[in-house]
Amino acid sequence: MSVFESVLIANRGEIAVRVIRTLRALGIRSVAVYSDADAGARHVREADTAVRIGPAAAAESYLSVERLLDAAARTGAQAVHPGYGFLAENAAFARACADAGLVFIGPPAEAIELMGDKIRAKETVRSAGVPVVPGSSGSGLDDAQLAAAAREIGLPVLLKPSAGGGGKGMRRVRDEALLAEEIAAARREARSSFGDDTLLVERWIDRPRHIEIQVLADGHGKVIHLGERECSLQRRHQKLVEEAPSVLLDEPTRAAMGEAAVQVARSCGYRGAGTVEFIVPGKDPSSFFFMEMNTRLQVEHPVTELTVSLGPAGAGGGLDLVEWQLRIAAGERLPYAQRDVTLTGHAIEARLCAETVSVTGGAPHFLPTGGTVLALHEAEGDGVRTDSGLSEGGEVGSRYDPMLAKVIAHGPDRASALRRLRAALARTVTLGVPTNAGFLRRLLAHPDVVSGELDTGLVERAAAGLVDDGVPDEVYAAAAAVRQAALRPRVPEGGWRDPFAAPSGFRLGGAAAPVRHWLRVPGQEPVAYDLPPGAPLDVTPDTVRVSVGGVLHTFHRSGDWLGRDGDSWHVQDHDPVAATLAGTAGAHGADTLAAPMPGTVTVVKVAVGEEVAAGQGLLVVEAMKMEHVISAPHAGVVTELDVTAGSAVAMDQILAVVAPHEQSQEQPREQSREQSHEQPEETP
Hints:
With 684 residues, this protein is an alpha+beta fold. It is built from 17 helices and 41 strands.
């Protein structure tokens, strides 16, 4: 293939790094783009050349068609790879590339437009004989019409933006009394994400499984499918874990779904790599329904690459979907028929996200995080692959999607792949930025996951058993050991050390006393940890080993950060005297509402002096394209309101204060301040 000499990647992070890898292997010059927030990012360093396209705000950089086309012109790029997210499914961008004489490495604009409108897409594939989920018909329905359609279909229902994908703005509604509120919120999220608040409503399928088919179509009329991926492990309608093949499907169902996906691709004149998504009742897999088509490369494409061979039966792992995107865009014909597609072994992928997971009142909350990557170790080895945009010293902010990397494992069977992936997640270290690696490792050990009894609600049901709100004793022991080691007096080589200068707990006429260290992990109460006198200190700049209860524990460390088995803790020093003088134990009072993560206030629903009810939504904070409702901790009056719509806020920044009514004074002070509404985002 010699058509392209230079390709611009209109994306960032791990997908840009992934595309660069294939371009390098093919001898094609890669052009990266970056905003001010990404000036030091890994994809910028790994590309052959890089162009600044604007400030941190996506609307002024990664979403600016004009700036992207200018970058392509300045660097002599002949084609544009859109990655996924941002403008990957934007028909206007595809047309603008063509008008600028650039090859858009993706489907025709008409196919993007058709499949991007979920209402038109359903009508089109229904006409092609593909089953669709029962739901509303027609576009442009107002709130009353949507509510009427929901009642006619029968609750529970699913509200979906017509213009979007990746689960953004989707809302499940079970209570008719909440219809108006949920419709308004779904419109707001859809308008924010896609610039279009058109909604449709569909029947909610209980205990559904999410299965998608990878298709490849050339520009000469040939379409094949590359088997399925199971994507049922989700949170907030966002995929967390994907695998290939699905344990649910038998060969007849697999063939039927594959043929349906091919028909969907043909119905819209598709070209390139795309994914047709189906919703499948777990108790009756043969009754599958078309859900949507993603007219781009998917986040989870590596599990297909690791299990599919094209041509004579092989061991799998030789497929490169990005390469085939490039070849098809360059006009090549697919030389394979459906009979040439062979599946070998099993592959599972877990999405590593910058987020913490907690459970309040039985409901899981996935809060975006951020910070500087102080220490990084990414898993590799036999059967393990990590696709990542991370690098040590890199900043993870709240501007973009929280997904940082993908950890993928392949094995001869599903049990082997699961075992390898759990081990890989345990070896993954991202100190300085809390991630969900530990949560994912525990999820993959859940009995229902191990047995393959999956559905899209499993993560939320199981979350309470996968999250430990406390901090293990050995974490405090390791943190105390680090601080104790730092107190050792430095002795010049060959010099004398004053024995009384060592912090050993020595006492005249008595046994040595434990050395007390006051420590605090954000979100937890301060702890006084007594380090036994004379405890051996096995501390290096990168690791710390401590024995607690006769068990030796090894942690990765960087400064105040400790990590083990995918989990990490930021253990800070705590000054109890200063806290007492300040009148607090280091946490906000029960009346105070603070930002649960860094982000932007998008909605303010109350004013100072307004009376509010317990649990009433007061503000909405958005971070990494996820929306979180900040609720009143109790009934009372808003006495302080320190932000307005559009305000940027830091973690734990005070947003408002609600003074309780007289009758509310005796309420327990430990109450939930934050309620997360499910606004998902799959990609940047």
